[in-house]
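Fold this complex.
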Amino acid sequence: MNLRRILHVSKVNPKLQTLVDLDLCYNYDLFIHSLYSLFERIVSDIQDDAHIYSKYEDEDLITSVILKSLTTAGIQASHDKSTRGNPDLVIEVKDYKWLGEAKIYRKLEDPAEGFLQLATRYLVARKNQNKGGLFLYIYRPKAKDLMNDWSKKLMSMEFEELKINQEKDDLCFYSSHTDETSGLHCEIKHIPVMLNFDPKDKSGRNRKNK
Amino acid sequence: MEGQAHILKLISKLFLDDQIRAKGLLVADFLLKEHSQLEYIVFDSFRSIQGLEAIPEDELLFITQVFCNMNPSLLESMYQLNMEDGSDPISLQKEDVRNALSSGVLINPETGLEVENFEDFVYMYFTLGKFFTQNDDL
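Structure:
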């Protein structure tokens, strides 16, 4: 099959675009870039259905939606068991690995606990597996303020060479630190999933209460 | 064999759609049985499998790409530039293909000249993936 056919077939079936893109990743950073583009689409889809998910406040439900979206796209993703515990998301593509933890953000201790689990238990920075992510399911309003509060708290935590990098006009941010176990650099993306649904108009209120 | 049982279990989890899973298992079965005879695999090789003669292109591409991306991989995708002018095909690195797709320009590594309409002359094919190359017991 030549590239023109592959591109044509991939246009018809968007799942293929992601898979072909991942297959062409010849280093870990490209894999991470492709994965984060996919996360953006998955999170956006979930947020579009906030009127449904806001009724439940169920961490496992949202995580299972993310897992199913990844598996539907043909990606090896699982809620894995390992000797170091059970991270909520383990994604493996070829030799590349990414670990994720998810928490409902009710109070500041929630993302802190998720970060500690991920950074001190599940994620041991190694070649091609030194990045992970913390999904924060936010049912409260003003996600930006909550993410700012969390990044400030994170900076007060004791991690070697801890740094934060916030992208402009983005609620996500990245943190990096030296992994205590391996001594290698590791990076964690902090990803809010905005699930607040509190319409003030009459039909919106009715929809919320259905 | 433990390796085969593990890979078949993994494949069963990777395909949510029953029909695609069944086709994926046919491809896996073909690879597991014939791997010692397979040096290069083209898309038409899979159409020789009983039950997959009429498999749609998108399904076959999906299955092969899942097999390339899984860990351990069953397939490794390769690319070559075949100018179809009687010259020998030229191997391309994934980096070359990725860069060509993002820039819209592919330079022929042998002539140094830009390949016009390169999408028509770059072909994907496969070799065996790490599951086979790192598993001596098969």
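The interface with chain B takes residues 1-7, 9-10, 12-13, 15-16, 19-20, 22-26, 30, 68, 71-72, 74-76, 78, 92-95, 97 of chain A (CB under 8 Å).
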